[in-house]
Amino acid sequence: MYPIKEVPVEAEALTDWLYQRFVEKEELLAHFYDTGSFPQPDGHKEAVSRQMTLDPVWLCAIQSFAFVSGYMWYSVLQYLYCCLF
User: Fold this and answer.
1) How many whole angstroms separate alpha carbon 24 and alpha carbon 51?
2) Within 13 A of 72's CA, how many CA atoms are on the CB side?
3) What pTM, to 2 d.p., does this model score?
């Protein structure tokens, strides 16, 4: 992203600026096609990836909470429906 103040107003300067952005885009795409990832922006360190794991106990607890919460809402709405009609 470029600030709007960096974009030239004059036609010739705008043409040159757009051409430079096109060259940058082509360089990024060439890097992506070669390596499978985009290069890191200046000043940023390379991201370290790690394997994603799911704790079965945590997953079971979340699912249990979802089912209990759903049942509680069902009971509340059923009670309200019975009271109104």
Assistant:
1) 32
2) 6
3) 0.47
